[in-house]
Design a protein that fits this description.
It is a single chain. By secondary structure, the chain is α+β, with helices and mostly antiparallel strands. The chain has one domain: Cytochrome P450 (Cytochrome p450, Orthogonal Bundle), CATH 1.10.630. It contains 20 helices and 14 strands. It binds protoporphyrin IX containing FE (HEM).
Length: about 500
């Protein structure tokens, strides 16, 4: 599969829409920043985003057929006014309803709330990792990092009951995630028993949780669906459950598939991005020192925090740190490989000098766009930074032209249509702001609280696992052994030392 797609893109001339046959379908492959931006700008009606979500819901998340038909039947689009050719009833406009629910949960006050919950959850779970100031050897960096991050994210979106009812969900989810391409291609279950069984266990966990929420719901309580509540979690879940209750096709199985889809979207791509960032940072002592000192400027004074020995960060300042922004942008550029598949609808479409025929499919891949050396800073002749290699400073530019001023600022100028990890236009990923917070906080907590040393042979280079190709961030291939210890520096050491002094005083 991975080779199939790389050979497709190898044959395409940049900027020229090229018609190729992919898995028995005629597809226009679209490349070039201008073409990509034009497609994203015209998504509302010319390129409704039907192919990718419907395929994912059916193949990956096993949405039952009657529920799938509700999605297929909804041709109304995501604008407030339904598309002129659509007669779908307002309560069955599943795309608009989903769009609104994600917007409520992942922008404005919904975003502030989920960011805050994630921060507090992660601080608490980092505090409980059991890591001491003594070095401990662990088999895998990614496993160490994802245990608290997964739980913090899941509890922020779904509330605490999902994981307390199904403590193995994390294990089952990552088993499924690792094999997600097998599910997407829709091999029969007997050919992919591990992937199918892992998905089944995840769906069972979702059903158990939905059943629990229904059984324990207090219908007498005036329910607002405007803020988080522990039973159903975020506004997204609450609003979707309300909409689903008006559609008989949305059975318990359908709700489980939908929730599993949200879980996959929420953590599947953010997690590898945190892992790659930490891998790069902990591999370079110079970069680690720069990141630590930048992040330290956003640590809140002890009085405002809830966890005694774990720092908390001023998130709005953290998100604006130039070096951290550059690392984040570089990691998504290098390791997100997403396909946007669309169909040309309702009329032929003129894309520059080219005509895309109505009914045909189009494919945009982030990878050629992200690896286009003409679109990104590749250093100088004396200090080159090839496009395939990680360079933490790729998106840093002088903050001012005043001679002698060394200050750097973050800039994505000139990358429009080339830096597209989240897609673009109307269907741009609605979770991108939360994803950014997850990644920044993940980096900030781990570099501040832990010393991590990779236990890999000299000259070792991490490779990508192609298992999620086309669906978001790619994972690090294999395990990365580490040794880890809790740091005794800065805020942490002052808290620990303070506690020791107190204990000493008590003993006397
Ligand atoms: C680095 C992390 C992430 C990446 C790279 C990413 C990327 C994407 C992309 C490329 C799409 C498809 C856009 C399209 O159809 O063209 C998408 C859709 C979506 N994402 Fe994300 N995403 C990330 C994190 C998140 C998070 C954290 C959430 C939720 C909390 C989320 C929720 C969603 C949802 C609900 C959709 C479907 C939207 C729709 O069908 O209209 N994503 N994401």
């Amino acid at each position: 599969m991975n080779n199939l797609f790389s050979s497709v893109f190898d044959t395409v001339e940049k900027g020229v829409p090229t018609n190729v046959r992919v898995l028995l379908n005629d597809v226009y492959v679209i490349t070039g920043a201008e073409n990509i931006s034009t497609i994203f700008r015209n998504e509302a009606y010319s390129f409704p985003s039907d192919v990718s979500p419907i395929t994912s819901l059916r193949n990956i998340f096993a949405l039952p057929k009657p529920a799938l038909k509700v999605y297929i039947a909804d041709t109304s689009g995501i604008k407030r006014e339904p598309a002129p050719w659509s007669d779908v009833k307002p309560h069955r406009r599943i795309r608009l309803l989903t769009f609104k629910a994600t917007a409520s949960a992942l922008s404005g006050t919904g975003l502030d709330q989920i960011n805050q919950r994630f921060t507090l959850n992660l601080a608490d779970l980092i505090h409980k990792t059991g890591c001491t100031p003594e070095w401990t050897e662990l088999p895998d960096l990614c496993q160490f990092v994802r245990t608290p991050v997964f739980q913090a994210a899941v509890n922020s979106m779904f509330g605490p009951h999902l994981l307390s009812l199904s403590p193995n969900l994390a294990h089952d989810f990552w088993e499924m995630d690792q094999r997600v391409q097998q599910l997407l291609i829709c091999f029969p279950s007997w050919m992919i028993p591990e992937a199918s069984k892992a998905r089944q266990r995840c769906l069972e966990a979702m059903k158990k949780w939905h059943t629990f929420a229904i059984e324990h719901r207090d219908d007498n309580k005036g329910r607002e669906e405007s803020s988080y509540e522990p039973l159903q979690g975020s506004v997204y879940i609450q609003q979707m459950m309300k909409h689903f209750s008006a559609m008989e096709e949305m059975t318990l199985d359908a709700k489980a598939s939908n929730s599993l889809g949200m879980l996959f979207a929420m953590i599947g791509s953010s997690m590898p991005a945190i892992n790659w960032s930490l891998l790069e940072i902990f591999q370079s002592p110079t970069l680690l020192a720069r990141v630590r000192s930048e992040v330290a400027t956003t640590i809140l004074p002890p009085l405002t925090t809830t966890s005694p020995s774990t720092p908390e960060f001023d998130l709005s300042r953290l998100l604006k740190l130039p070096l951290l922004q550059s690392i984040y942008t570089e990691i998504l550029r290098l390791h997100v490989a997403v396909f946007h598949i669309r169909s040309v609808r309702h009329s032929d479409f003129h894309l520059g000098d080219w005509l895309l025929r109505e009914g045909s499919k189009i494919l945009i891949s982030s990878r050629p766009a992200h690896l286009d050396p003409s679109a990104f800073n590749t250093g100088t002749a004396e200090a080159p930074h090839p496009i395939h290699e990680f360079w933490a400073d790729r998106f840093l530019v002088p903050a001012s032209s005043t001679p002698g001023n060394q200050e750097l600022k973050f800039s994505l100028a000139g990358c429009n249509g080339n830096w597209i990890p989240y897609g673009g236009g109307q269907r741009i990923c609605p979770g991108r702001h939360f994803a950014k917070a997850e990644i920044f906080l993940g980096i900030a907590f781990f570099v501040t609280v832990f010393d991590i040393e990779l236990q890999v042979p000299k000259g070792w280079k991490a490779e990508e696992d192609g298992g999620r190709l086309g669906m978001g961030s790619l994972n690090i291939k294999g395990e990365v052994p580490i040794r880890v210890r809790r740091r005794r520096s800065g805020r942490e050491s002052s808290v620990i030392e303070g506690n020791q002094e107190e204990r000493g005083a008590e003993a006397k």
